Amino acid sequence: MYRPKEKSVDSTMLIDPSAWYALYTRPRHEKAVYRSLTARGVEAFLPLHEVLSQWKDRRNWVAMPLFPGYLFVNLPKQDLWLVRATPGVVHLLSDGQGPVPVPADQVLAVRELVERPVTVGRWPYVREGDRVVVKAGPLIGLEGFFVRRKNQSRLVMSVDLLGRSVAAEVDAECVELVEPALAARARS
Question: What's the rounded Cα separation, in Å, for the pair 138 and 116?
């Protein structure tokens, strides 16, 4: 992780000492940007998944970005200039007033999901459904949305700022309801 040189700073300046931010890259530059940032000592996370790619003469498994065009960095806000100066970076995701941090629990949930021994793939972004926690199997402890499609059960995790989701197959008997969807919608 990138550590800035020691400076005497007022403790009120360190309201958010380090947060996760999403950045958008030029098309197909995610891996190059990731390598460049990590070479500078910046903590970066590029979620990848294996895809069977077809060429004219062969087929091969290739690691592709789970969120094409996006990756995450963990830096203090005052050090975001390191990211902006990286070749291949288009911009940091912002709300018009400045970069917006991605909730750490969403980034860490995606990180845990891609590190587990399960098949992971892209999924349409979801907001509704039953929130569940996995009680058994390789995804134990992860929370997400439970979705059924074509007789398959999936655990879907969303990154709200990106408007993107990922899904992994899960046994329907291994999940437990966290909060019914109707109760969640009633509070909104």
Answer: 7
Q: If you compute the radius of gyration of the chain from its CA atoms, what whole number of angstroms results?
A: 19
First to last CA, the chain: 37
| 76 torsion bin: left (phi>0), alpha (psi -120 to 50), beta (else) | beta
Note whether 78 and 20 are same-domain residues. Answer: yes
Q: Which residues are registered as beta bridge partners of 152?
A: 149
Count of domains in the chain? Answer: 2
| CB atoms closer than 10 angstroms to residue 155 | 28
pLDDT digits (tens, 9 = 90+) for 16-53: 578 999 999 999 999 999 999 999 999 999 999 988 88
Full-model pTM: 0.70
- Which domain CATH number covers 95? 3.30.70.940
